[in-house]
């Protein structure tokens, strides 16, 4: 496998950054990654018991539902999809974070995760972000003065689903696209005792003032387009400006550096690289802690969800059909248990 698939040349990186700036200028901010948010501590404080209440329109089995959860002074909504099969007790839970500028329903349509989760008997939850973006980084902004709010909300959401007997606390997984992928990585990095595995599509770990660093072993899968023009494979060390009034774009390390950070935290073995039809795979085998890390770089793919049937916005690049990202990430995650 050629090493340049994971380390694009400066010229290619510059071209991608230029394309990214052009996309922003056109208002294509659906999935610009990693909103900042943050404390100076590497691990945000655990929730100190905020008031939590729910307003639930309980869905019938196999039918989508929309529910609400109040944490502190804020009420958030989330979509649910329960498997059609009854019984079996608490289900494996996947929390799926949408991209910046998008919403829960868009990720549902883009990813096709409902069908993949249904086949595996999983409970699937798509939370709605505040301002259509997640605090995936650790630097406060004018728009997001409480950088840890999304971490606490996710903790409270998981606790509620476990409390009501719907979710298995030992099989809680997080995933997401773009900014939502970075949010999933933040949860894995800062709450390794809470999630059994994480997957990110087109999302990387924030760096700089908003840096997120893994604090313990967690199995992680990162799926990335080799030709991503919005959030480059090589990372985005110097993001362009956000539109007036919008939260700043967060700098990120490369997809490979993101995977390597989790591999180091998990004490994995050395990387094994392999070329597959349509994509390249790098696997850091599980060490004593049992946390395998895997990076899949999809040839010709842009800032898109591989295998999706939903056309991406102009300027986001191509959708690859060489990989079914939804089935691949669920197979990876459901093999993990905390």
The CATH architecture would be 3-Layer(aba) Sandwich
User: Strand tally, please?
Assistant: 11
Rounded to an integer in angstroms, the radius of gyration calculated over CA atoms is 18 Å
Largest sheet: 11 strands, mixed
Which percent bin holds the helix content? 10-25%
Number of structurally distinct domains: 1
Q: Order of SSEs, N→C?
A: HEEEEHHEHEHEEHEEEH
User: Tell me, what's the shape?
Assistant: globular
| Category by helix and strand content | alpha/beta
List keywords for this structure.
338 residues, alpha/beta, 11-stranded mixed sheet, 11 strands, 21% strand, globular, hydrolase activity
Would you write up a description of this structure?
- The protein is of the alpha/beta class and 338 residues long.
- It has one domain (3-334): Alpha/Beta hydrolase fold, catalytic domain (Rossmann fold), CATH 3.40.50.1820.
- The protein is built from seven helices and eleven strands.
- Strands 1-2-3-5-4-6-7-8-11-10-9 form an eleven-stranded mixed sheet, sandwiched between helices.
- Strand 1 and strand 2 form a beta hairpin.
- Residues 1-61 have low confidence and may be disordered.
Summarize the structure.
Residues 40-69 are annotated as: Disordered. This protein has 338 residues and is of the alpha/beta class.
How do the helices and strands line up, and which of them pair or pack?
Elements: H1 10-25, E1 52-56, E2 65-71, E3 74-81, E4 91-97, H2 104-111, H3 113-119, E5 123-127, H4 149-163, E6 167-177, H5 179-190, E7 197-201, E8 220-225, H6 255-266, E9 272-276, E10 279-284, E11 293-298, H7 325-334
Parallel strand pairs: 4-5, 4-6, 6-7, 7-8, 8-11
Antiparallel strand pairs: 1-2, 2-3, 3-5, 9-10, 10-11
């Amino acid at each position: 496998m050629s090493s340049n698939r994971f380390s694009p040349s400066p010229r290619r990186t510059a071209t991608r950054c230029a394309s990214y700036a052009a996309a922003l200028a056109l208002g294509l901010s659906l999935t610009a990654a990693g909103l900042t948010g943050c404390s100076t501590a590497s691990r945000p404080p655990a929730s100190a018991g905020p008031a939590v209440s729910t307003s639930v329109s309980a869905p019938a089995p196999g039918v989508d539902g929309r529910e609400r959860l109040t944490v502190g002074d804020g009420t958030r909504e989330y979509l649910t999809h329960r498997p059609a099969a009854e019984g079996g007790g608490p289900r494996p839970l996947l929390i799926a974070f949408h991209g910046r500028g998008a919403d829960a329903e868009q990720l549902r349509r883009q990813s096709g995760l409902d069908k993949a989760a249904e086949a595996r008997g999983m409970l699937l939850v798509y939370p709605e972000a505040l301002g259509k973006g997640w605090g995936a980084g650790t630097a406060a902004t004018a728009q997001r003065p409480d950088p840890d709010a999304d971490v606490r909300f996710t903790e409270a959401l998981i606790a509620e689903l476990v409390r009501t007997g719907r979710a298995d606390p030992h099989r809680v997984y997080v995933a997401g696209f773009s900014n939502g992928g970075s949010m999933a990585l933040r949860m894995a990095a800062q709450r390794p005792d809470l999630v059994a595995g994480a997957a990110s599509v087109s999302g990387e770990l924030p760096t700089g003032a908003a840096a997120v660093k893994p604090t313990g072993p967690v199995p992680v899968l990162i799926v990335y387009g080799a030709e991503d023009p919005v959030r480059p494979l090589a990372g985005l060390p110097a993001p362009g400006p956000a539109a007036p009034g919008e939260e700043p774009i967060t700098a990120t390390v490369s997809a490979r550096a993101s995977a390597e950070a989790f591999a180091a935290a998990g004490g994995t073995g050395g990387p094994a690289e392999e070329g597959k039809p349509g994509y390249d795979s790098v696997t850091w085998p599980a060490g004593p802690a049992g946390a395998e890390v895997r990076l899949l770089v999809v040839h010709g793919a842009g800032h898109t969800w591989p295998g999706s049937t939903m056309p991406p916005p102009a300027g986001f690049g191509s959708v690859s059909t060489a990989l079914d990202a939804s089935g691949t990430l669920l197979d990876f995650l459901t093999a993990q248990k905390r």
